[in-house]
Amino acid sequence: MMPALTPELIYGLTGIAVFAIGLIGALSLQDRLRRVLALKLCSVGAGFLLVVAAWRVPPAAPDPVPHALVITGIVVMISATAVALALIRRLQSLEAQDDDA
Amino acid sequence: MSDPFVIFDLLIALSIIALAVASLSVRDLFAAIVLFIIFGLLSALAWVRLAAPDVALAEAAIGTGVTGALLLKTLHHLRFVTRTLDRPADFAFSAVQPVPMGVVFANALFCGLVTLGLATAFLGAPQGGPGFDALVAEAMPLSGVDHPVTAVLLNFRAYDTLMEVVVLLAAVIAVWQIERGLSDAPAPVLSEVFHGFARLTMPAIVVVGTYLLWKGSEATGGAFQGGSVLAAVGLLLLLARVYVPAPSHRGMARVLFVIGTAVFAGVGLLVAGGGRVTLEYPLEHAKTLILLIEGLVTISIAVTLAALFHGREPVALHAQRGAA
């Protein structure tokens, strides 16, 4: 039997697909900036799964706890991204200096 | 199931997956970042469909807006130090090292297994199962606010949120240290159009950000969404060179970075005692305390995000060189 196409199924599978794309990217891409992008995709995929888990068939209200967790995750992710990007900028500057020397 | 929105959902889901693939595989890095930004906005739209407007706002403002600005700024810096600013195509791909086929297969197998496990877990999990809905609904009268997500963030699980603000603080400390003494890529010269745009949008952004913060206690919004919208003002000021960070501003900046964490932790500790534990606000003052914390955390978040965008600690470079 075909399961009904509910938003929860559609977006749950989307989340898994996005997570998988991010995971493959993070492991196999060699460009640093792209790796950060790939990890960011992973985090959005994980966010999808949590938001889907919080969803209830309307008119029931969704579960607010996973929502709060995803918001926390988004803020932690931008902190990690900012530090990763600063490291990338520093590395590239050092490499450029080495090339000049 | 003849919900007309199913087609809409399917279209968004397919676009999201296609954009995710495209942003990792497109050759030009600038295009990759722009595709990623569109991906983030569509994800936010999907989360609105899943009745999670708070999360969607946070993803659109922080996960996509500020992250996109950070990525573009980093790309500009990388192109500057590799001297490919005028030749964008030359910095599209850094040299690709050959990878043994065994490693490729191992990676693919690993990713496949993880994805398969995730899919099995997702499809096997009880759907719409009882979560914390009932517990939260029951405790709502004790929270002091009317919006469940804000109640969870600032009251029931305030400890998580406190730690999250600490993480943001740690990030700005780390970024200042990492980029110490690093010369800044000269900011791109922005045209008159941008200055006009900044002048027109800035007042509107301030109003929207403050509204989001204020509204958070009873409806969608809150400190993180409001703070990141306000951070956009900082980004515009920095980009338009209306505000140029000077070494003498560091003291003020440090105070603003810390104030949210300090007040949050301070209130959390001060309400303890008399039978209450840390971060358990007395009911009659809960709303006031939550608004106080949220207001100051919003300021800290806005300033911290703008500082993360600016990157380098604003120290005088010649003094740096003299000390080294």
Describe the protein in words:
The complex is a heterodimer of chains A (101) and B (324). Chain A is mostly helical. Helix content of chain A is 81%, strand content 0%. In chain A, α1 packs antiparallel against α2 and α2 packs antiparallel against α3. Helices cover 70% and strands 0% of the residues of chain B. The C terminus of chain B is likely disordered. By secondary structure, chain B is mostly helical. In chain B, α9 packs parallel to α11 and α10 packs antiparallel against α11. Chain B starts with a helix and ends with a helix. The longest helix of chain B is centred in the N-terminal third of the chain and has 29 residues. Chains A and B meet through α1, α2 and α3 of A and α1, α2, α3, α4 and α5 of B.
Q: In terms of structural class, how would the helical and strand content of chain A be classed?
A: mainly alpha
C-alpha geometry of chain B? globular
Task: Point out poorly predicted stretches of chain B.
Answer: 318-324
Tally of DSSP helical segments of chain B: 12
Q: Level of helix content of chain B?
A: 55-70%
Distance, first to last CA of chain B = 69 Å
- Determine Rg of chain B (CA atoms, Å): 23 Å
Q: What is the rounded Rg of chain A?
A: 18 Å
So how many helices of chain A? 3
Fraction of residues in β-strands of chain A: under 5%
Which structural class best describes the helix and strand composition of chain B? Answer: mainly alpha
N-to-C span of chain A: 68 Å
Largest sheet of chain B: none
Quaternary assembly:
heterodimer
Largest interface: A-B, 78 and 93 residues
Please estimate the helix content of chain A: over 70%
Shape of chain A: elongated
Major beta-sheet overview of chain A: none
Average of the residue pLDDT scores of chain B: 85
Stretches of chain A where pLDDT falls below 50 for ≥5 residues? none
Helices and strands of chain A, in order, run as: HHH
